[in-house]
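Notes from hallway chat w/ T.B., transcribed later so I don't forget. T.B. wanted the structure written out for a chain they're using in a teaching module, and asked if we could keep both sequence and structure tokens in one place. Agreed to drop them here.
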Amino acid sequence: MVFARTVRSRLILVGLAAGSLLAVPQAPAQRGRGIFVTPIPGAPFVGEVSVERTVIQADGKTVTVHTSHMIARDSEGRIRNEVRAFQPAGATGTPPLIRVHLYDPQTRLTSYLNPRDRTFWVDAVDHPPATDAPDAYASPAGSDAPPSQFAGEKDLGTRTIAGMEVHGVRETQTIPGAASGTGQDMVVTDEYWYSYDLKMNLAVTHTDPRTGSVTMTVTQLSRAEPDASLFTVPADYQSAVGR
């Protein structure tokens, strides 16, 4: 039997998980887990996401890294999501910018900016954008979805993150020793804190005793209208197509 987390049926968001794990050495990417910025109109903001990552390497040693980056959405529902490199624990300064993801729900065009060589490429999305993230288990839609047969769920109530009230849900999955590769039962935990006002998670934590943990939290948030230039390709960027 394959023991895997059962994803509940819901609309899939056009977006990019904040805090990509691709920059972490020997760390498997946690695809589908993250802070997704939903492309909804009428709820503008600019935020800062703090990401803390602990990696259990093949030799058993633990490596701790961190990063932070911007997320933003304007009144039209356009989104900006940055990816910055991870830095060793204790490092200071602004992490290097690796990639920027832009999305416009009106045109259904998603753009990726590469700051290192100042190039971009554009893709068209052939379906309407969703108004909820694929991992919004603490949202009203998540509450209405049927429970997973593999995972236990606990309602964590409400708290405040970056000045916003959020609702939390913790899901646990026990992996039998025969399937965990260690001979011992392992408990994998996922925690989600969802803002009803912003229609997105403001904190996500994933913990797996075999690989480590990652925590993504919105630490700063402004509800003011962002500068329009954040959602457009800079004039000095060149198309990567044909290069």
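Follow-up for T.B.: Residues 45-228 form a domain with the outer membrane lipoprotein receptor (LolB), chain A fold (CATH 2.50.20). Might be a good example for the class.
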